[in-house]
Write a structure and sequence with these properties.
- The protein is an alpha/beta fold.
- It has one domain.
- Helices cover about 45% and strands about 15% of the residues.
- The chain is built from six helices and five strands.
- It has helices at about 30-40, 45-60, 75-80, 95-105, 125-140, 140-165, and strands spanning about 10, 65, 80-85, 110-115, 120.
- A five-stranded mixed beta sheet has the order 2-1-3-4-5, with helices on both faces.
- Strand 4 (about 110-115) and strand 5 (about 120) form a beta hairpin.
- The longest helix has 23 residues, at about 140-165.
């Protein structure tokens, strides 16, 4: 990657794509259904949309870099502005790439996340930890599971209370 000093760097992740027939799980399996729900909830934006968004925010002289080839500390320092382009709300699929960028960027460079919902925020250790927690709950469906368990435990008591009060 060659970038001239002062030009913002936008780091993006190529969207994963499944080749037709590459998913060998049965069409009605639970894991495949959960993956379909997860992909639907992510509502990823296109690469063109994300490029237009960062150009709108940082100007037309943005240098685009694939997340697989994270720039060096010197290149990030020369730029001064680094944008991570998350094509969904929480950066699902980035793994540790966002941490590598944050650690590699010098203190003089600002690392900003632009997500597919047109939101932007500074990437700090606390915001990254919160994002990892949200990614974990999103991937494991623990929030939905906890709600379902509480609902199933509490519902009979609510129905019983209504029956005692004479409501049906």
């Amino acid at each position: 990657m060659t970038s001239s000093p002062g030009r913002p760097i936008a780091i993006y992740r190529a969207a994963p794509s499944l080749a037709p027939g590459s998913d060998t799980r049965p069409p009605k399996s639970i894991s495949r259904r959960l993956d379909n729900i997860r992909r639907y909830k992510q509502a990823r934006r296109s690469a063109e949309y994300m490029r237009a968004l960062v150009v709108e925010r940082a100007g037309p002289d943005v240098v685009f870099v694939e997340a697989a080839t994270i720039p060096s500390r010197e290149q990030l320092g020369e730029s001064g502005k680094v944008f991570l382009l998350w094509d969904d709300a929480i950066g699902a699929g980035w793994g540790l790439a966002d941490l590598k960028v944050m650690l590699r960027a010098p203190r003089s460079a600002t690392v900003t996340v632009l997500n597919g919902r047109r939101r932007s925020f500074a990437l700090t250790p606390m915001s990254l930890a919160g994002t990892w927690a949200r990614r974990f709950f999103e991937a494991t469906f623990l929030g939905e599971l906890a709600f379902t368990i509480v609902f199933m435990v509490v519902s009979p008591f609510i129905v019983g209370l209504d029956l005692v009060r004479g409501r049906r």
